[in-house]
Sequence to fold (848 residues):
Amino acid sequence: MKTRRFDPRTFSMIMILCALWIFFRIQVGGFYFSGDSVSNLTRDMATWAILAAGMTLVIVAGHIDLSVGSLMAVVTASCAYMLDPEYGKGWSATAAVPLALLIGATIGCLQGVLVAAFKIPAFIVTLGGLFVYRGITQKVSARDPRVPEDSWVTAFGFEYLPPSAGWTVGISVCALIALVVAWNRVQSRRRGLDVESIGITIAKAIVPGVVILGFVHKVNASKGVSYQTLVMATVLAALYVVSRHTRFGRHVYAIGGNPEAARLSGINVGRSIVGVFTIMGLLAGVAGVLWMAQNQGATKNAGTWYELYAIAACVIGGASLMGGRGTIFGTLLGALVMATVIQGMDYTDLDNWMQLVVRGSVLVIAVGIDIATKDPPRWMRRLRVERRKPEQGDQSDG
Amino acid sequence: MLSGVHAADAGAVMLDGDRIQFHSAQDSEAAGIAVIHQELALVPHLSVGENIFLGDEPVRFGLVDWDRMYHDAETLLQRLGVQIDCRERVQNLSVGEQQTVEIAKAMHKRRRILILDEPTSALAQDEFETLAALLDDLRTQGTAIIYISHKLDEVLRIADRLTVLRDGKTVDSRPRDTWNRDQIVRAMVGREIEELYPRIEHVAGEVRFEVNDFCVPDPLRPGRNVVDHVSFQVRAGEVLGLAGLVGAGRSELLLALFGYRVGYGRVRVDGQGLRLRSPRDAIDAGLALVPEDRKQLGLIPSFPVGQNLSLAHLKQFARFGFLNDQQETQRCAAVAEEFRVKTAGLDVAIETLSGGNQQKVVLGKWMLVTPKVLFLDEPTRGIDVGARAEIYSLIDDLTRRGLAVIVVSSELPEVLGISDRIIVLREGRQTGSFSREDATPEGVMEVATT
Fold:
């Protein structure tokens, strides 16, 4: 459907993000906006931002997945086990990685079936999964399997696109965005639909381009675009398209909004739910392989609390746990907020216990701000009314 | 607004001569006003007694005094002259009984003013009489009652004074005796309408839709049927009315024929047998259903108007699963215009539309691909008179296009007014069948009740 007017909440999210950046720039100093720093930020968030992308679909469908951290760890462990020549199977990455992704997708699919066909609440299914997969992880990664250094998969932990390749990718993406925006405008005009003003169309084509090219320019000053960041961007872009421009995506939103009305409209609710959880599992697999590459192996504590980072990113990004609302773009912003806070605290040498306190507070405060601007509780609304001039009063439709 | 949920812009509310202002629902309750909404505000899994005393349970030594609570609840219900077990869970009561519980709750809290908002939208005709008698009693006991309803007969039966509002303005307010039905309708519509129901002769064609020995099992009582061996035919270009009281199994029949709930029997569309495993099967076979409860089954509240319109027929805009936004917008805009949906645009939130326009969206969403058979369950519930007339004329248009239409309605004049043929259900069984000429309110009511 036609793009809606710019969401004020997205705007407030961006403002919060900028405020955080300025705050940490003051705290940390000139290093904060350097290529290294920006590169690290987008590299370290990659694993759980990928989980958050899948989580967005799950939450939009009106469910929750608490198991993603453990599920990711299972994939990490089993993939490393398949690769390790000493304690494990010593297979090549070409065989092990697809198999590991398949494991993730299969487990996700299974959870989906339990939710859709057996009507067990997703909260319960995935809470059980959280324990089960962590247990399996401990068994499989008991000897801390290592990834051989000559395996191609390690590139996803340590390689960067050379600057020229980074520019090529960046410019191609910008060109693609501009092309799609232009094509949509031409199509709308051809069909005699309302067309937005030319300024907005140009802004739509230019703004993402400026951000992308600015990012490439920045990280090229250090080592270039990391493979992790590239994988994360690809996943986010793919899920953006799935959620906004496919029939499946529309069905997911409909189910989250009103499952009964969705069923009466001919949507196969069960199948869509299984689909959502399968995608979630597959993405947990992708994140797992990335984690393994970053750490050159597996440990039994891989991905601890990642499910909570993922959920936090979605919720900060405006997804409603009641289902039906949430966007991939919002989740990206939410993930950036989380990542900024985590990285900033690392730079400022905050104690570990304090870091946890701040992370939790950021989640609650960000959602609090969101609710206060969108749907304030009654007492807050009254404060606002009283502060205004009395004769203006509140809007009434009763 | 009076209940304190919305604030006033201007003007004064006077209670016993004092000017009062409400900031919240609590303020309004404190002033002695009780509001009974269209959607009942009871806690379904608590007992009748608990619901009546919700918020001020009798307490002894810090614990709830159950004996006193149930005893008081019983006396209260007796005073209202109803037979309800106050230890029963509210969810097991009929809608009419639940309403009585709400009134009992209001009485318990010594409310002086009772506001009823469309109390009968979920009631059958006979239940209305019980309610009316109850309200008569309360009136003699000195309670002021504000009765909000679209149903003119009810208002005329109950009210001492009648106020007609249109578009948020008072059109007229006079004692009951000075009003008659036509005057009210005229005041409501703001223009003369000769007749609400279009009296048009439809030319019926071939048999479009055929149902034989159809049964719908009762999920709550195994072995019994909500709909029991019902058979009928509908021709192309014909409107079949399904009359009966609430609970007669009409909605259940439609939902089962649409594959939404389980049903057994032979169903044919244009002579072709149908297997109904899901609504998808029904939609693919050319069936369409406008459900009774828009909010619950008809609309996705988080979707804008356009996405609600396209939801059931997304396939035609998809290639390899990817949607063509422009094609979708174009088609939805065309349907919205054809069905006269008044909206600021397709990307407007569906909740901002009036009930009548929401209903047109629910109807329009099936018309992206013209169906063969259209089921309408209470098509004008909660809709004002003006939008009603529009819905009727839309139904008429569709019928002329050769659709077979089946209408369920609890309002007898409506069924009689728009149907070419009527069948009557009572407790799931087919008890009568009328052609347009022999259908009289009395005749239909007789087979629906006895």
The mean pLDDT of chain A is 90. The interface with chain B takes residues 1-2, 4-5, 184, 187-188, 190-194, 241, 245-248, 250-251, 253-254, 256-258, 260-268, 324-325, 378, 382, 385, 393-398 of chain A (CB under 8 Å). Residues 34-159+226-316 of chain A form one domain. The longest helix of chain A spans residues 163-190.
